[in-house]
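User: Batch of two.

Assistant: Item 1 of 2:
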Amino acid sequence: MDLDLGQVRAFVAVAGHLHFGRAAEELSISQQAVSKRVARLEAALGVALFTRGSVELTGAGRRFLEPAREALRAAEAAVGAVHAAGRPLRLDVWGHLYGPARTVAPVIEERPELDVELGMSRDLPAAAAALLRGDVDAAFGRVHPPLPDGLAHRLVRLEPVDVLVAAGDPLAGASGVRPSDLAGRDLWFPAAADRLDFISRFCEEFGVRAVSGGANLGVEHLLAGLPAEPGRITLFPADAPLPGAPGVRAVPVVDPTPLYAWSLIWPRQAPHPMLPALIRGFAEYGRRHRWLEYDPARDWLPGEAPPPTP
């Protein structure tokens, strides 16, 4: 039989979310359209792929899922081979101190059909300008308003943030610290505070003082600067590896936990043909690793909810 890739894509989306409504949001079509595509696929295969009532995969659905994903990847690779004319997708990253490549690398490595050329931008405005000029095809980092017209973005990861303190700090041995406990402290960061939306908003929300540390010379420079001033602290992603720093301790921030939002952005007009595969790669990998978990009663983001996704 000939598979309808639109039906297969609908099945894979529902299987990933176990929810028809969220699958419809991912595919930017109606929930009714998703239901019809899945029903037609089941009719063509002659088996039920989901249980009715509660959305769960049947045995046939579980067996079909991975081959279905492979079929979609093969189709994307075929389209990319025809239209990309051999040019890789140019992806810029920014927010280098927080290691954006940590999030990008496993997604790309998992999808061999992607040919990605990685570059670096100084910050969000620089990345946005490069996208609008056509110098790059997509960019990855923290997105915050205002985002120029002509660009789309998708939230792909919410990463918990720790507080880093000197080993002799009273907080160094704590199992966790509340943001309110940091009020009045100096939060040091090696860049101008007006360029750091997340840091600025955190300081404003919890009464912490933002202190600029000059040029960003890397993680080692950041860690070496912490013990230089008594009481100095900084924020750092909880999953980011810290190089050997015996004089520095990482303490989880709780009640609430700050989340650093990583997003993918791209031009709305004439996107690179490999872009849909890259977006789906982030969605699939993020779903398996629970990258978008958010509880407003437990977590903190600037604003009341995660940034919107198209």
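Item 2 of 2:
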Amino acid sequence: MTSLSDVKVLITGASGFLGTHLIQRLCPISGEVHATSRTQRPNVKGGPLWWQADLENLGAVRSLLANVKPDIIFHMSGLASAIQSVEFVLPTFHSLLTSTVNLLTVATEAGCQRVVLAGSLNEPQSKDPEIIPSSPYAAAKWAGSAYGRMFHALYGTPLVIVRTFMTYGPGQDSRKLIPSVVLSLLKNESPKLSSGEWNADWIFIDDVIDGFLAAAQMPEIEGVTLDLGMGTLVTVRELVEKVARYVGSSSQPLFGALPDRVLEPARKAEVMMTFEKLGWKPKVSLESGLQQTVEWYRAQFSSSSMSPQLR
């Protein structure tokens, strides 16, 4: 496997949930870590070298890669919302797909050891050409992965697609399901939810980062798409009921208060292929991961320096 201590790494979208955790793992072990964000961020000791970059701009991508000259690229940037409203179509298209095509084009021209492209469980996975993506996000991620496979097949781009399933853990945006429920219950409020019947494959952030690091280092796996999940389905209702027990609030979740989303897929990760290619298996059980997550948000909620967003 490639030693990360000897390479220069670039993480796009590094201020997001996945990117933040990847930075925390990479900075102590990698030779040099560069990170992009749409907003200017200060460089601090022990952290990455930050670049303010709009990856929807091809010239900006060319300039970025010419300056950084990365060996390994983790491409994680883009709007991470599965909202189905029509006003999200164009912003999601450009944020996810235009940026991905720009990055793949320049990385192929400039050359690098490996591009790890973050896929999504929301991507339609059937071979049926009539399948319908469930949101603008799903359509853009699906197309981005298709471009990735094309770049590898036609131009030899050394690319691996890592398809993450329902990732959760400390530091996730408070608008996401688990943080939202935890914070509502900590405030003794009843979170409003859909029916809770949707099934999903829930995976703890530490296991996901392990998978990304393995995908960057394992030789001779270019062109494959690998799933990172537990390989089991758990309904939202069952998940939220576990969270409520760990929080210990007297408030109860209000299932059915919100409508279910249409076309929402229920998929579990194909973990056997991931293990065969990477030797990766999830280590953190759902119960342990949820308990760690609840305790992190409880500590943040109790802290006098807590982010206003959590209030």
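Residues 22 and 209 are 6 Å apart (CA to CA).
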